[in-house]
Amino acid sequence: MGVEELDRDRLVWMYHQMLRIREFEERVKRTFEEHPGVIRGHTHLADGAEASIVGSIATLRPDDQFFATYRCHGYPLARGTDPKAMMAEIYGRRDGLCKGIGGSMHLADPSTGFLGTSGIVAAGIPHATGAAWAAQIRKRGQVVLCFFGDGASKQGAFSESLNIASLWKLPIVYVMENNGYNVHTRTEQEDANRAHGEDLSVKAKAFSMPGVTIDGRDPVAVYETVGAAVARARAGEGPTLVESQMYRLSAHGNIIAPPGVPLHFPEHEAVEKFGAPEEYAAALKGDPVPAFRGRLVADGVLSAEEADTLAERVREEMQVAVSFGLDSPFPAVETALEYVYA
Amino acid sequence: MAHELPFIAAIDEAIRLEMERDDTVLYFGQNMATTENEPYVDAFGRDRVRVTPISETAEIGIAIGAALSGFRPVVELYMAEFMLVAMDQVINEAPRFRAMSGGQVKVPLVLKAGFGFTAGWAGQHTGTLGALFMGVPGLKVVMPSTAADAKGLMATAIRDDNPVVYLHHYLLTLEHGDVPDGEYLVPFGEAAIRREGGDVTIVATGWTVDRALGAAATLAADGIQAEVIDPRTLAPLDTQTILESVDRTGRLVLVDQATRHASASTVIAGEVAEHGFSSLKAPIVQVTALDATIPYSQPLEAWVLPDEDKIVAAVQQVLGSAPVTA
Amino acid sequence: MTASPPGREQGLRLLATMWRIRLFEEQVGLLTRAGEVDGLVHLSVGQEGVAAAVCSQLRDDDAVYSGHRAHGHAIAKGAPLGRLLAELMGRDGGLCRGLGGSMHVVDVEHGFMGATGVVGGNIPIALGSALAARLRGLDSVAVVFFGDGAAQAGHFHETVNLASLWALPLILVCENNGFAEFTPRSAHTNVERVSDAVAPYDVERETVDGNDVVAVWDTFGRFLASARGGGGPFLLECLTRRLRGHYEGDATKYERASAENDPIERFRSRFDADEAEAVRAGAEAEVEQAVRFARGSPYPDPGLFAAMVYADA
Fold first, then answer.
1. Which pLDDT score is estimated for C259?
2. Is 0.85 exceeded by the ipTM?
3. CB contact under 8 A, B55 and A338
4. Which of C123, C156, C161 is the best mutation test for A, with the most CBs of A within 10 A?
5. Which residue, A154, A277, B187, B316, shows the most beta carbons closer than 10 Å to its own?
6. What domains can be seen in chain B, in order of their start residue?
């Protein structure tokens, strides 16, 4: 019950999804300038993480499930959730995915197995673990993917959940997206393993489960490794910790400021806080989206023209999403009281 | 028909009946693999009944994930203070998902926890914490005081599609009561009038209900007829029954084993002051724990907590007060 | 700098400490059944070796924290028996003037910074003491005792990461008796040894037979010398067994240790019988004196504790 081989269609699909995530996130970022005031609060972008997101989501069956973090836009896009509803949600509108009540950090689309998102670091890890228990009881071979950042691995919720998942052999794959930062803190400033020069996947040893580190900028490598872990889980062999290394290309999120101060995205922390512009420049050079394009074109999977056409389609698609979001009215105020209790 | 059961067995009966009725109900928590819990494993299997390590954040978070995924978990937490280890999951996760998703999901789960181990269990095990949760939208808070209600409220809690904090007082554990046979549901948001009377309304929660009834018997010997109301659920709270009673008696004494500003009685006092002011003939009087970490030594522990004598004194105070001018 | 095994005098003192704990705890058991000690009490019978071997190598300025099974650690750290028993009996002469009880005993004078009723709750707190020692440039250390059940709590792992990252003088001492409350370890985790739970971190660790006082003494001594010299953190896992239930009144049936595994029996054989008996008799007399003291101590005045809710400005 392995993961399908990647044929041309699949590879093109993966590239297409990476483009869609990139363009969607770019449009979210541009909204701050083009339509100030429309996005409120705090939003977090997945640019730089596309390869890992798409490579992971590509391993799932339709009835599998996944949980994410406040940086949650990429996964539902790859899974087939309508970007119009997503943008409207980020804009707080009536036609938003969650009727405007959740916002950027709390997307949910249970119809695709995306059961909901917590904005609290690591809080979703036990949630995913519980969904995996449910899957184990149902015995339909479902698997749960649990996405979180390196920062979450220092939370007690991480260790408690992995211990239980290992003990109960739950059908879950924990995908740790290590982008080198936890908000404004560099990983080596807060993580004993990183400070001692180790990969974070070594943490799996504490729970008697396999741990593996991969290059999260290579969607095929991600697909193969996460796919193998998913197959393991589906076969009842228990959980795996996958550390997917990458770099986030935007700052942690838009600035946090009281009303009156226009919100915007600042420079990446490497530049703004740590005086390491060369680190950021190197990350841009390793940008997974153009890198994958280059690889596909070089391998003859895609011509340059076909790649350009895809990019144009994606630009149009996300323009429609933005317009849809802007045109959607605000929800009726009474909506605030409608979903307090089931 | 009914049969007599101790409080704790009545709760178990409800859980068992619900697990028989609905195979999506799960039951798990620490120490669930001890001999007396083997019947649950025998009856329902190790898929649905599991022991966990000491990992409250994961236990409650796992319950949320399983609930999001279509199951109805009951988490055995043993003591309310252990919920504090995982406050994020209780207050900022479980009750938020339905709203934040715009109604797409629901989180049906029950957090079962004993509380009020006020028998020398000292500062970290004796709290009455229900009111910390009663103001959280999306969360329901239940506090039975009789064996029958313990059964009926647990059954309702399991069938409720929302997260429910189910608190059962330690000192009531072995209190016997008549419990209806078979399926028995007590609705949320309906207070019970335990004793009728026209001179004063006493609202009491959990273990203090029996203390209030004891005080009422003492007062009756002096010709004072007290009405004793047990809200049974703190959220939803049946303010209507309380207001109607205060309208009849004009005087209100509120009893809660929690500390003053974290008590259900303070919340009720606010509601009555706002919506029932014209019914009051005297200021409201509250009998709560004093503001301190519950001490270990028995005379101090007793001094801090509400008891019958303090309730009697409170009634005398509210009756002796000069009437509020209309 | 390696530690040396306990010499004869030190050995006799260790034996005395172990007897003091054993006889004290047995007395507490009797008093609980008689209703003179109430509430929730967890006894250290069978686990005296670890408390004695660890705490007797520490100074008053080394901070020791414990869990709910704390009497042995407090006694080994120097808490006077009479004041400890008075605390368990809720008297004003108690270490905490009757306010804390068994799970909340504190003896700051001897560096016993506290027990707790929340499993693993003191582990992050002990790290704070270790940090304070380092910030002040002192060579004191922090030691925290906990059971194997605490190793699955999130705050244990959170603490280990920071202790390792900051290389603090924290010595984690796990008394692994194979049970957490009423559940065997195998139902809590796949990881058999608590020392393996810290495998990913740069924590010097060792597992020893907790009933072998010399083994505990040796290993802890090495860790202690290193911690005083700027090293840390460390994990010492002591395999041991409770010889009584989880708490007094625990009627659960599960396997019990035999007398062969009794740390006192094993250690006393190194001394000649009269010597050992004199030590035991001395401890017995101390415990009897403690009972008299505690029974003679009055109950606290209720007004007293109102002043103890907040520290004075």
1. 60
2. yes
3. no
4. C161
5. A154
6. 2-180 (3.40.50.970), 192-320 (3.40.50.920)
